[in-house]
Amino acid sequence: MRAATFDSSFWVHAVYLDLVEFLISDFELVCTKAVENELGRDNPTSRQLKALLADKSIKRAAPRSEKIKLYGDGERAAINLALERKFLLLIDDWRPYEAAQAVGVEVVNSLAYLIGLYEQKRITLERVLHALARATRRGTLRPEWIQSAVRVVAEIRRKGENR
């Protein structure tokens, strides 16, 4: 199973879009203390993370060094851990996403992951469209990413009808 680490923004969206069960089955998830701290203590996203850390569904790790020194503590720790250990980086903040990509880290945002689930027929068209609508209303993801996601979903659906 592939190892992946994530930043706070990705985790918040994963919880909000109900993707956590899929992530747990697809990856060996590893969380940094910085991300855990950024999420705070008493909110639905941090409670879910703490429960999964407690039952060892998600592991903890820290980067040994800081090659990337920019961005917030959580993004920086996640990027550095992914860089050091060749983990997949699950990240939704676009500047750190692009910076991680530029140094050779493989990155995926929550919308790309969501679309992958639809493409693999693990979620329905209705569920992917509902999630995209929720992401749009939330307003915390780049509008360009959402527009692109809608186009890709439409293309996958069109190809599926032509099989």
Give a description of the structure.
The model has no long low-confidence stretch (mean pLDDT 92). This protein has 163 residues and is an alpha/beta fold. Strand 4, helix 6 and strand 5 form a beta-alpha-beta unit. It is globular. A 5-stranded parallel beta sheet has the order 3-2-1-4-5. 60% of the residues lie in helices and 11% in strands.
Write out key terms for the chains shown:
163 residues, alpha/beta, five-stranded parallel sheet, 9 helices
Query: Which H/E pattern describes the elements?
Result: EHHEHHEHEHEHHH
Overall 3D geometry? globular
- Tell me the fraction of residues in β-strands, as a range: 5-15%
Average the pLDDT over all residues and give the rounded result. Answer: 92
Largest sheet properties: 5 strands, parallel
* Helicity level: 55-70%
Query: What is the count of helical runs?
Result: 9
N/C terminus separation: 31 Å
Specify the structural class.
Answer: alpha/beta
Layout of secondary structure:
Elements: E1 2-6, H1 8-16, H2 20-26, E2 27-31, H3 33-38, H4 44-54, E3 58-60, H5 73-85, E4 88-90, H6 94-102, E5 107-108, H7 110-119, H8 125-138, H9 143-161
Parallel strand pairs: 1-2, 1-4, 2-3, 4-5
Helix pairs in contact: 1-4, 7-8, 7-9, 8-9
Outline:
This protein is an alpha/beta fold and 163 residues long. The protein is built from nine helices and five strands.
